[in-house]
Specification:
Radius of gyration: 20 Å
Helix content: under 10%
Distance between the termini: 28 Å
Number of strands: 9
Strand content: over 45%
Number of helices: 0
Length: about 160
C-alpha cells in the first residue's frame, strides 16, 4: 500500500491511501470442497478474488474526521448461488463505496485516553455482492447496504 498526506491549512489534513492484494495461488484443500468430485483443477473454486484493492480519502480537522472508501474485488467463481449446470459461471468484479464520520475526544489525566465515536455506511449504493461458500471468512461480510456505529475507548 501507499499513502500521501497533505496539509490544507484551515481546511484540515487530507490523506489518500491505497492498498492492493494479488493472490497468485490458493490452496483449496479443506473438508468442505473435498467432496466435490465434479471439479477439475481448472474449475476449482477460489476462496478469494485474485485481485483486491481499496482507495481511501480521509479528511481530519480538529476532533472531526471523515473517510470515503472505494473497494474493488476482482471477479471470482462462486458456488453459493449456482446449480451444477452452471458451476463454472464467473461472478463479475465488484466495486463498493463506503462512507464514515468520526469524532475523537481526549480525556483522562494529561489527555492520555481517547474516546472515538464513528458512524458509517458500507456499500452505500447497495451493490449486490456475492458471498463465498467455501471460506470461514467471507470476501465481503454483508450483502447490500449496512449502516454501523462504534464507540472506542483507548487508554
Amino acid at each position: 500500500g501507499a499513502s500521501y498526506v497533505w496539509e490544507a491549512g484551515n481546511a484540515g489534513t487530507f490523506t489518500l491511501e491505497t492498498t492492493a492484494t494479488y493472490i497468485h495461488e490458493l490452496d483449496q484443500s479443506n473438508e468442505l470442497t473435498s467432496g466435490y468430485a465434479l471439479l477439475s483443477e481448472q474449475s476449482q473454486l477460489p476462496g478469494n478474488a485474485d485481485l483486491q484493492g481499496s482507495v481511501t480519502l480521509t479528511w481530519q480537522f480538529g476532533n472531526h474526521s471523515a473517510s470515503a472508501v472505494t473497494n474493488y474485488f476482482d471477479s471470482f467463481k462462486d458456488i453459493s448461488e449456482l446449480n451444477v449446470e452452471d458451476i463454472n459461471q464467473l461472478v463479475e468484479n465488484i466495486t463498493t463505496f463506503d462512507l464514515q464520520y468520526g469524532y475523537n475526544v481526549k480525556t483522562g489525566k494529561q489527555d492520555r485516553a481517547v474516546i472515538s465515536f464513528s458512524l458509517g455506511i458500507r456499500n452505500i449504493f447497495d451493490k449486490k455482492t456475492t458471498q463465498i461458500l467455501n471460506q470461514n471468512s467471507r470476501v465481503i461480510d454483508q450483502n447490500g447496504r449496512v449502516a454501523y456505529g462504534s464507540i472506542k475507548y483507548q487508554f
